[in-house]
Amino acid sequence: MSGVPQHQYDPRRLFVFACPTLPFSKYKRSIGVYIAGGLFALAHWMFWDAAIVSAHAQPPPDAPYDTVPVHVTFLDWVTGICSTLGLLVVNLINKEHLLSGDGYGQDQAIVWRARLFLFIGFALMAGGLAGSVTILVLKYILQEFEDKYVYYGYANVVQNVALMLSAIVLWLAQHASTEYEYNLTL
């Protein structure tokens, strides 16, 4: 840092040059919440679309007595339910309880429980994603179904990925400052 004058250098900054501020940066919390909601809606829309298409699947017209080889069953629903529960658990945790209990007057048991529930929430989401990939591979890809049936498995994976992204965006949006929040330091 010898080339930068000392009065302009702030050790808390990541870069030597300041990054530009975006014109909508004061609304970043609201934008984050809307994006998380959109991802949540997209996730469930994708899976419900696959479930509805599966429920109305008919055998081909040239073989009316054949059966449809695969349908969306309760097994397919379990992964999305786990990811949705994980999203709820993660985003219902008070973020201040995750910090160490030394400076905030919190009991260590509260910090420990908050971290345990955060772990459980992320484990539910990771289990949902892993389960959906497993179902995609074992139920749809290894059985070598047509692409219109493999779509059910892809929709399940997209649902779980979008739910995880929604949880992350909502988590980050909750930490963003709003236009009505003031940061006072002494």
TrEMBL record:
It is a multi-pass membrane protein. It is found in: Membrane. Keywords: Membrane, Transmembrane, Transmembrane helix. InterPro entries: UPF0220. This is Uncharacterized protein. Belongs to the UPF0220 family. Pfam families: UPF0220 (PF05255). The chain crosses the membrane at residues 31-48, 68-93, 114-137, 149-173. It comes from the Eukaryota. Signal peptide: none annotated.
